[in-house]
Please model this.
Amino acid sequence: MDNRYIGVFDSGIGGLTTVRHLMKILPRERILFFGDTARTPYGSKSGETIRKFSFQIGDFLKAHDVKMMAVACNTISSVALQDLRERYPDIPVVGTIGPTSRNIEKSCSKDDRIGILATKATVSSGAYPKKIHEHAPEIQHIYQKACPIFVPLIEEGVIDHPIMDMAIRYYLDPFLKEYDINKLVLACTHYPLLSANLNRLYPGIEQISSSKEIAIAVKMELEKRNMLAGPDNAKRNIFYASDLSENFVRMIHSIFGSLEENPDLEFKNLEL
Model:
């Protein structure tokens, strides 16, 4: 039994979608979340910068004695996951790409035509096709699409809006048609916030969420290591942001409800 915090971090608010799954499947656990909202998006930044920012956040979480780090960001997972594991050898570090690829192995066949929606950095790394082929070499129809405008729009709260639908159609209409995609991997933890848009615009296409898969992987890792929290874990969930903006707080409320409904939520601003 281990009642220390699970440290979850992301380049912005997208990791909140992972926190939502964690709170559902691990209700006894307490989360210390950090969203780097002041420096988002990471997807267009260099690998060196992504690693630098990731180490800054990791050092902050280590200083708070987290029992695990969940890298709820596909960009960081594709560029810096191994670096983080080497920097913090005593802390389990779980990323998004391995768990999501294992789900693809289980749920997809060689006939499926899979579209990976991700940031520029994730697409450029080739991490998803490589990992999928490791787990399921028979799956050959894998196509990637960078959608760089999605994260800034989501961070601004522009989701249920015609502008977002226009952006989705701009990227996906030709992509889906060209490759006859029947399954979409939301390979950025921001993208599940567009799930309703995608279902409405493309109702026949199945979605696979990296946000959900990393939450399941965290649960499995804690169980394997006998590190689950006990029933007396009275800590509050704490949400740090490098820019505690109205958008960040509004997104927390939209995902988790009001403070009155969730008195165990606490918000803090932190500049790294």
